[in-house]
Amino acid sequence: MRYIDFDKTNTYRKLVVHSFDYTTLNAERVRHCVVPMAAGLAYSWAAKPVEKPELDLLQALADEQELIGKYQAILEGETMNTGENRKVLHHLLRGQVGKPVIHEGKNIGAFYRQELDRFSAFADAVQAGNIRGSTGKVLSTVVQIGIGGSDLGPRALYLALENWAAAEGTHHLKAKFISNVDPDDASQVLASCNLEETIFVLVSKSGTTQETLANELFIKDKLTKAGLDPSKHIAAVTSETSPLAHNPAYLDSFYIDDFIGGRYSSTSAVGGVVLSLAFGKAAFQDLLAGAHEADQCALEPDILKNAALLDALIGVWERNVLRLPYTAVLPYSQALSRFPAHLQQLDMESNGKRVNRNGEPISYSTGPVVFGEPGTNGQHSFYQLLHQGTDRVPLQFVGFTESQRGDDVAVDGSVSQTKLKANLIAQIVAFAKGKTDANGNKEFLGTRPSSLIYGKRLTPRVLGALLSHFENKVMFQGLVWNLNSFDQEGVQLGKVLTRKVLSGNSGDSALDAYSELLGIS
Amino acid sequence: MRYIDFDKTNTYRKLVVHSFDYTTLNAERVRHCVVPMAAGLAYSWAAKPVEKPELDLLQALADEQELIGKYQAILEGETMNTGENRKVLHHLLRGQVGKPVIHEGKNIGAFYRQELDRFSAFADAVQAGNIRGSTGKVLSTVVQIGIGGSDLGPRALYLALENWAAAEGTHHLKAKFISNVDPDDASQVLASCNLEETIFVLVSKSGTTQETLANELFIKDKLTKAGLDPSKHIAAVTSETSPLAHNPAYLDSFYIDDFIGGRYSSTSAVGGVVLSLAFGKAAFQDLLAGAHEADQCALEPDILKNAALLDALIGVWERNVLRLPYTAVLPYSQALSRFPAHLQQLDMESNGKRVNRNGEPISYSTGPVVFGEPGTNGQHSFYQLLHQGTDRVPLQFVGFTESQRGDDVAVDGSVSQTKLKANLIAQIVAFAKGKTDANGNKEFLGTRPSSLIYGKRLTPRVLGALLSHFENKVMFQGLVWNLNSFDQEGVQLGKVLTRKVLSGNSGDSALDAYSELLGIS
């Protein structure tokens, strides 16, 4: 396999701006420009500014950068996290795609499967009342304590499935989340819990995350003061080498390893414990099945049959050819209210890099800024800029035929779910085609590119496929750009300086002066 | 007053990129580069790439564009919303800054004051149990139904004050929000409420907002099915000419007028009813007092004494000279978790425009993309790109000396609030100064500009000042760019096309084909 910088490929110099006529967006194009995805989802790229010449170039780029071969190398356990000298095995959490991965004599897939079985049984036992709080009360609330990937992904997935679970009658424990080191975060969540009936899931791969350890002490203090035994109210998710592992201070511990990056950990115990407690083990395993199916779809070399690959390459076109520095994620589903925040981490932490996988500076743009809010809410907010601002922002829409709860009301001849979908469709066309008007203030230039991922209803299986789609999209983009998408050295300097401030001996007069402003004595 | 396009000013051609040495960020600079703000807040611009030559240019720009004079014109009721031929009077909600504004014989300030008095008394009556639900139960929950400015600002402010109110013992009604036309949104919120004890605040200036009317029918249906009288459970906030006004279907109606734009309406009844019900009238009036004080501070012509003006002009420098197309808002306060979403609307809907106040196309960049999440959460997410991505993103930090609840725990020699502040400070310096390293992957270029707004503790008064700061910042930027920051024609095309889709006769084959994909029959 050849790892070369994007601008050293033969295809790179052929990537120049082509004109695209957005008024060609008609029924035939909409019906034709669709790639089937896992779990019944589909990816529509009709409103993206690409036709056969651009797609041929993007296919050539995919082939030249050996994207599918490199994806297979990831699946087979090559050391693709070059900075940290680690394998990248989150796909293996969902199932075996390639051949078994053996590391130092250990079958990693079997290890992941064993942990899945362990926390599935744990969830069963809590839900059945076989594991209870220290005063014998059945546990009704789970509070996840973690930050970054231990928070954003699991929280987004929990919110995405709450309504589904209510409709299906499978909502077991209510989940809450504590992430920030801001003491008001933990204090507020704890004030809303009946501690006797609460189980905490403490999540830190290293077992040394400053925020999470501070919040652990915070809750232990509250549990103790309430006369409860913390060891009966806390389970840990960590690596086997961390101080949280095999520790009698916890009810139980569930393990991941260094081959699971934080932002890729939602399908490990990091997401699995809280989601299994909340919605049952079957729901979480359906989510894994959807993700696994999407992982298999991503092996297809033809970009017109591989949604994650095509989405990635169109994103490269927008970033490096059209030179658009951002992407908006716009799910028309309130359940996906925090999914953009998860994708923001996934994308910006993976590909927000200015050195290649060998640590050498590169001279082309990499990961864009990602932001988004659910529609229709965003329409009444930042869409003004998207329609009529001075810059173009590429858009990624997501929508579903049915609501999750099926509870709806007809007003003016249509139910709310139909209105929601009508708004989504209208936006795609409005962004693409615009509208001329003699009054410049009422004119819309159109030519705003967008894609649409659509499906029947947001279920665990569909959610798993959606999650995996974006993980694989980001992976393919990182491979095009010849990045290591799996480390995050950019978080380190802040940690070092924070410790210096807290030590009282920062060695930097600006830090000292800012400390005075903020009353750090 | 002369209204001219930014690129026609004399100052414009002098605005060229200057070099700036971020290593000059030392104690002296930190202590010197501070502008006092209202309510004890302060604006630190030490880590922004401006010194005397740049500041002289920005002062010249402020003077040439007559920013303070135009702000005074707004205060005095000139027709500054040129597109809709309306005055812009949200400042008047907080108090009289200029002379009284009379419109068609009506004293508008007196009208706003009257409505404030009316909904303050209403909140008192609900809290005292003098207004009750239709079965005689005391009302314990308020659900705001509104979208865009009727949701984002009030929701952000509610979340910002929940912990403060809990600590002060002034948390009366619990508030929830329904915004999206997605039926799962309303269904989920309603399922979490005891309807007998719930009051709804229905907010739509025009009384014709599709989402809000659909949700009104949704809740009325549920109330009726629960055997309750909807007219005893709903209050309206609207304009006097709307179908919701003077309507016996509601407990009461509170009024705003066309001079209050949605994204500027948090300090009107749109935010005032729900916040007064939740936290008491005194808290909301303190918020108004903080905003009023900030409005007065914004009259200062010297940019080094006017934080909103300086913040605006530095933003223009970053946008039009450094050509940076985005801004991140990073509050180190979990209470401000949704404040960035409010600012996203405020900024992007106000200044996401490509025509000037007369509707003529302009050829310079205007409003940036705004996004953000609270620290320290963001550090474990998208900060990777901010530190080590290929593009620079200007940053706006916010932080407080004290937490809101005062409930904290010491770990490793410091409480969580101190850790929170130490992280904030460390980030400012890390972003500015970076770190050299022989390993490119561990190198930080620094040179990332940031500002810091800081204060003692987030109270209603401080929150009002913070809100007004950003409103006035956005206003000043719009005036520099010669925009009308107070209309939003960009939302119209989507509404028109949505109605076409719902009519079943869209007249566009792409709309029809997308309708098929999403199962709209």
Helices and strands in order:
The structure is a homodimer of 521-residue chains.
Chain A: H1 27-32, E1 34-36, E2 42-44, H2 52-64, H3 67-75, E3 102-103, E4 106-107, H4 108-127, E5 141-145, H5 152-168, E6 174-178, H6 183-191, E7 198-203, H7 210-225, E8 234-239, E9 253-256, H8 269-279, H9 281-297, H10 307-321, E10 326-332, H11 339-351, E11 369-371, H12 383-388, E12 395-400, E13 410-411, E14 414-415, H13 416-433, E15 450-455, H14 460-480, H15 492-503, H16 509-517
Parallel strand pairs in A: 5-6, 5-7, 7-8, 8-9, 10-11, 10-12, 12-15
Antiparallel strand pairs in A: 1-2, 2-15, 3-4, 13-14
Helix pairs in contact in A: 2-10, 3-14, 4-8, 5-8, 5-11, 6-7, 8-9, 9-14, 10-14, 11-14
Residue stretches of chain A low in confidence (pLDDT < 50, at least 5 long) are none
Top CATH class of the largest domain in chain A: Alpha Beta
Tell me the major beta sheet of chain A: 6 strands, mixed
The computed structural class of chain A is: alpha/beta
Strand content of chain A: 5-15%
Second CATH tier, the architecture of the largest domain in chain A: 3-Layer(aba) Sandwich
How confident is the prediction overall: mean pLDDT of chain A? 97
Shape of chain A: globular
Question: What do you see in this structure?
Answer:
The structure is a homodimer of 521-residue chains. Chain A is 41% helix and 12% strand. With 521 residues, the first copy, chain A, is an alpha/beta fold. The first copy, chain A, has three domains: 6-88 and 289-394 and 464-490, Glucose-6-phosphate isomerase like protein, domain 1 (Rossmann fold), CATH 3.40.50; 91-287, Rossmann fold (3-Layer(aba) Sandwich); 492-521, no CATH class. In chain A, the strands form four sheets. In chain A, strands 1-2-15-12-10-11 form a six-stranded mixed sheet, sandwiched between helices. In chain A, strand 7 (198-203), helix 7 (210-225) and strand 8 form a beta-alpha-beta unit. In chain A, helix 5 (152-168) packs parallel to helix 8 (269-279). Chain A is globular. Chains A and B meet through helix 1, helix 5, helix 6, helix 7 and helix 11 of A and helix 1, helix 5, helix 6, helix 7 and helix 11 of B.
